[in-house]
Amino acid sequence: MDRNVDIFLSKAEKWQEEMEKLRSICLDCGLTEELKWGQPCYTLNNKNIVIIGELKDNCALSFFKGALLYDAEGILTAPGENTQSGRWVKFSSVKEIAEMEPILKAYIYEAIEVEKAGLNVILKTTADFPIPEEFQLKLDAIPALKTAFYALTPGRQRAYLLHFSAPKQSKTRSARVEQYIPQILSGKGLNDDYIPSEKSKNRIKKP
Predict the structure, then answer these.
(1) Coil/strand/helix, residue 194
(2) Distance, CA of 176 to CA of 197 (rounded, Å)
(3) For the chain, how big is the Rg over CA atoms in Å?
(4) Model confidence band, residue 125 (pLDDT cutoffs 50, 70, 90)
(5) I want to staple 161 with a disulfide (CB 3.0 to 4.6 A). Which of 35, 65, 77, 129 is the partner?
(6) Residues of 10-30 as b/e, b for ≥16 C-beta within 10 angstroms?
(7) How are beta strands 59-63 and 87-91 bridged, if at all?
(8) What pTM was computed for the model?
(9) Distance (Å, rounded) from C-alpha 53 to C-alpha 79?
């Protein structure tokens, strides 16, 4: 057990009991506990297997390579429509988790075997994501923008393409493109200028 996870759970504003129950299930499966990205994470030989998340309306057990699991019970869902690898199960009560404990353990053991076998999700490349017309016009018109965009890491490129493509209206897509041109030209990703709130910065204090 990791002391930082103890601190995290002691300070949890919601779903404390639910996350404690998920924690015990993960530890029962022989995984190593760490605090990663401010959340309890469970690993095997330093490879991420599952992570527990505190959400607004529920808590979740997320499988890093959930897309590779058989999901015989049909309980896994993707956190977002563009999520390629991860899958999660959300809960809103300890009773719900307790009733699913055997199933959750079976899924965790399957995830462990997936990791031991060295299996990986085949992820889409940047070339698989369409470039919105509004952004393509800017890339063609501003050579420096095109150079800066393709100098970004593939992950940052995909984040921008998904963000620019999301709105249904061309006017909104164009506005998003205009908003982020300076950021792209400065070599930054979509969220590189994100500043954590004081609450999130102070949530976990190392002993």
Answers:
(1) coil
(2) 23
(3) 20
(4) confident
(5) 129
(6) eebeebbebbbbbbebbeebe
(7) antiparallel
(8) 0.69
(9) 11
